[in-house]
Write a structure and sequence with these properties.
Strand order of the largest sheet: 1-2-3-5-4
Distance between the termini: 38 Å
Strand content: 15-25%
Radius of gyration: 15 Å
Helix content: 25-40%
């Protein structure tokens, strides 16, 4: 991967298996470093990890399908997009008992990202999240509008 700070979009495709989550995290950290966003690297890696995990574990699609990860920078934010060929809209689970090992991914994304949502595709869906570069701008979308509500139901 190049170290070109002028790039505004970085993409990778990953096999739909659990080992891809670590590769996606590493990719996110590498891109954050290349873009000079080291202070955002942990949050970016966390959101990427949660969204790719959901695509790998929960997307209902055929064997051999891939997950596409796209990172886009601009307007004071980084947009994460994870596309899979599965149908359906991911929905955050209600309160998950602390004894459960999973089920908090979208709650984590909701807590860390300025905004997130789902876009239907011709085949499958893209789940996206927006991370603000300025900590105090976490309630502002990439186009500068104040985010009135989260993408989660009931928020």
């Amino acid at each position: 991967m190049s170290e070109n700070q002028g790039e505004t979009v970085r993409r990778t495709r990953l096999p739909r298996r659990r080992a891809s989550v670590r590769k996606a995290r590493d990719f996110a950290r590498e891109v954050a470093g290349a873009w000079g966003y080291r202070e955002l690297a942990d949050a970016l890696a966390l959101v990427v990890s949660e969204l790719v995990t959901n695509a790998v574990v929960h997307a209902r699609c055929g064997a051999g399908r891939q997950v596409a990860l796209t990172l886009v920078r601009g307007n004071g934010a980084v947009r994460v997009e994870v596309r899979d060929s599965g149908r359906g809209v991911p929905v955050p689970r209600a309160a998950v008992p602390f004894t459960e090992e999973s089920g908090r991914g979208l709650a984590v994304v909701d807590a860390v990202a300025a905004d997130w949502g789902v876009r239907d595709e011709v085949v499958g869906k893209t789940v996206w999240a927006l991370l603000a570069l300025e900590p105090d701008a976490s309630n502002v979308s990439a186009n500068g509008r104040k985010v009135a509500a989260r993408a989660t139901p009931g928020a």
